[in-house]
Amino acid sequence: MARENLREEGRGVKAGRGIFGAVLVTLVVLFGSGPEAAAVEKQVPDSKEQIKLSFAPLVRKTAPAVVNIYTRKVVQTRQIAPLFRDPFFQRFFGREFGFQLPGKKRKRVQNSLGSGVIVASNGLIVTNNHVIEGADEITVVLSDRREFDAVIEGRDESTDLAVLRIDGGKEPLSFLELGDSDDLEVGDLVLAIGNPFGVGQTVTSGIVSAMARTQVGISDLNSFIQTDAAINPGNSGGALVTMDGRLVGINSAIFSKSGGSLGIGFAIPSNMVRSVVASLVNEGHVIRPWLGAWGQAVNADIAASLGMPRPSGVLVSNVYSGGPADRAGLSVGDIILAVNGREINDTRDLRYRIATLPVGQSTDLKVWRNKKTSVIKVALEVPPENPPADITELTGVNPLSGSTVANISPALAVKLRLGSFEPGVIILRINRGSSARRLGFKRGDMILSINGNSVKSVSYLKKFLAQQLGRFEITIKRNGKTIKRVFNR
Does the active-site annotation cover 256? Predict the structure, then answer.
């Protein structure tokens, strides 16, 4: 699935009303009116009367908790010399091509829209981070047309979630309770509610098309719910609702070549939403547990070599010494099949499952070892900041001058979303116009050695660079590949 075809957009929905009245009792039995309905056996319509049922009661119950979000951002752009505004130049060289007039800057207001969901009566709202990112002003409009200024309670780029808060006064606001997204099954009916294209609140219906979509590439820590409920631009942050009126997902993106709905939409599961909201509200930032083990998805060849009945789980290739997994007895070569009874298919699925769990407790890992399965209990802890980052901007006459580097620790690896842990030194950023930028170094490069000397820490790196040498042979790792380059003064 090409990333350029994935558009972060909101969800729109239309609801046909059908025939209501005499069949209300049947509607309650089929779709539920509260938590007790979860125990009702799922079934498909078996008569014309049932097909004519309406979602209207469910919409009346849930729609007031879904809000429209409008943001304003002031941006500054340099004015371009008139010659370079000519369409001929823009066609062949791009819109950014052209001579910028010195000192000439123009301010303009950039508006955008999205959706959000009230999850607490005190005005706590969940939306997508990309809806409010960089906003100077955020306005929330309720379904009854009341408007409120919103403040950002917290943001999490890894899951593309943000939490806002509004002051609704003394009157409690309508809100949606979070359901258990793990209870969803492919084929379950769902409603998507949001503000597509800014036309106003809209409702669409559909089914759960797939679960645990991890290859979408929208954010780092998600196992998306896929739905065919119509979702369009402006619905980002809107609600995916089950038939018992609970929130099971935050609509986040669609797969589209045209920008409109093609029936492939993705929602962030409510279990991840619950974890992020609790952490942002209680701690002010997201705290996630850390397993201390990495690996790769099990394919057919690996499964056959290990005598597994089918490809499943994650093959452990690295275990952090002294970490939670190591202390629990997990070893290289083990295959993690499930977390707390929930099967996993790849490394993203494993990270998602661990990320939804609370720090300070423990989890059960189902493990395949020596053609047998067993359960290992692992403590859920935060990643350690060992060694300390020692963030340093490098200066002087050397190829890395102008770059800022740090020691990699498990905590920093998680923060930088590296996916695995390797000790060493990493480039965090590079100044414009610096030697490091001109010589082709990039953010995220790991510095492995200088002139054959292993770079174990920032202090080692500084010592090697301080030597008065006329030649630098620097080895780095970039995107999993080792690169060796030679620089002469």
Answer: no
